[in-house]
Amino acid sequence: DTGVSQDPRHKITKRGQNVTFRCDPISEHNRLYWYRQTLGQGPEFLTYFQNEAQLEKSRLLSDRFSAERPKGSFSTLEIQRTEQGDSAMYLCASSAPGTRSGDEQFFGPGTRLTVL
Amino acid sequence: QKEVEQNSGPLSVPEGAIASLNCTYSDRVSQSFFWYRQYSGKSPELIMSIYSNGDKEDGRFTAQLNKASQYVSLLIRDSQPSDSATYLCAVKDSSYKLIFGSGTRLLVRP
User: Fold this and answer.
1) Which of B46, B101, B103 sits opposite A104 (nearest CB)?
2) Phi-psi region of A98 (alpha: psi -120 to 50; beta: other; left: phi over 0)
């Protein structure tokens, strides 16, 4: 399977703990995006990378959130001191370089986070 | 605040009918528009992209774009029960991120 992969698929944690999620984009896709989706809502943008550079961060991304893409391949999203309001599906997407086709974003299966 | 608006539904149609899903957006400079299908508990799946005014057809799906009215729609012909899902409209803003609507739930009755 050559699609976007995410790990873990599910994470249950206690409030105050730190969690880290991983995303592996489609091979040769240079842009990688993180979104968060809660029940009944569309995905909300968190941040995106072009290669290893983090080019934009949403105001939704508080100081407790950090994302990296150290070698321009996989990315990690860490949430420190989790809160119950962090419970959501965390989605990763990637897109290819180029013109219009580069606007198309393909999503991974997501990581569902539950904070107790 | 850039917005994408969709009717939450549910939109209920009988099997074999045409389902029409609509979306409006607020940012006039948007140039790229997308429809995603999302089954319950799954991640969004890209089904259509459209960049120019007019219609774009792909199998049973037709996307329609009217930039003057800031309106995007998706038609699903010969609807099947397997089409029952939430359909998300997304608009690319001036950077590369997508702004999503909250989705329209479609129910196709056998």
Assistant:
1) B46
2) left
Which tens digits make up the pLDDT trace of A14-54?
Answer: 999 999 999 999 998 999 999 999 999 999 999 999 999 99
| Per-residue model confidence (pLDDT) at position A97 | 76
Asked if A48 and B90 come within 8 Å (Cβ–Cβ), the reply is no
Q: Do the Cβ atoms of B43 and A91 come within 8 Å?
A: yes
A91 to chain B: which residues are within 8 Å by CB? 43-44
SS3 string of A13-59? ECCCCCEEEEEECCCCCCEEEEEEECCCCCCEEEEEEECCEEEEECC
A42 and B88 in contact by Cβ < 8 A? yes
- In the block, tokens 């917005």 appear at B3
DSSP per residue, A83-100: -GGG-EEEEEEEE-SSSG
Direct distance between the N- and C-terminal alpha carbons of chain B, in angstroms, rounded to an integer: 40
Q: Give ∠ CA B23-B28-B34 in degrees, rounded to 5.
A: 40
| DSSP E strand stretches across B39-110 | 45-50, 54-58, 61-66, 71-76, 85-92, 98-100, 104-109
Beta-carbon contacts of B52 under 8 Å, excluding residues fewer than 6 positions away, are B65
